Amino acid sequence: MEHGRNGWELGADLDLGSVIRPAVHLVAEANYRHADFAHRNVGGVPLEGSFHDFSVGAAARLTVIRIARFEPYVGAGIGVHFLGTDIAKSQPVHDDYTGAKLGGEYFGGVSFDLTRDRRWSLYGEVRRMEVSPVSRTTYRVGFF
User: Fold this and answer.
1) How far apart are the first and last CA of the chain?
2) pTM score, two decimals?
3) Which residue of 35, 40, 69, 90 pairs with 113 in a disulfide if CB–CB is 3.0 to 4.6 A?
4) Sign of the CA dihedral 88, 90, 92, 94?
């Protein structure tokens, strides 16, 4: 993350099922990110404060290949990010960290089926979110 440190993120994805073909899934997403500023003002003085980013969006996930219980995938999506901050309104960057902004994302990962019916899976992925000024790369682990 370009302007944050000491951050954490929680999220949930809802797989809405396959579309067009079985390897393509539509996913609804919600994420919440909170971090301290790692940014300096015009005079070079570090800004004190934190910001948050609550986002909702949709993505498409494409299974690249299936190897036994492993399933590598790639995906992309769009969403709306609701930014907020506790930085002083007198700071010029305050407005950059508030309001609703459209953002995009792309990701890749691999899932491992825990059950033979493929109902439950573990996954790990790398995800890049692009929304100025809080663009970031995240590393995720979880289960479907």
Assistant:
1) 26
2) 0.84
3) 69
4) positive
Convert the pLDDT of each residue in 66-86 to its tens digit. Answer: 999 999 999 999 999 999 998
State the residue for tokens 């609701």.
82
Cβ atoms of 110 and 73 within 8 Å: the answer is: yes
- Report which DSSP code applies to 89: T
Residue type at 46? Answer: P
CA atoms within 13 A on the CB side of 4: 22
Residue 86: both structure tokens together: 């506790």
The angle at the Cα of 97, spanning 15 to 127, to the nearest 5 degrees, equals 35
Nearest-angstrom CA–CA distance, 3 and 22: 39
User: How many whole angstroms from its chain centre is CA 12?
Assistant: 10
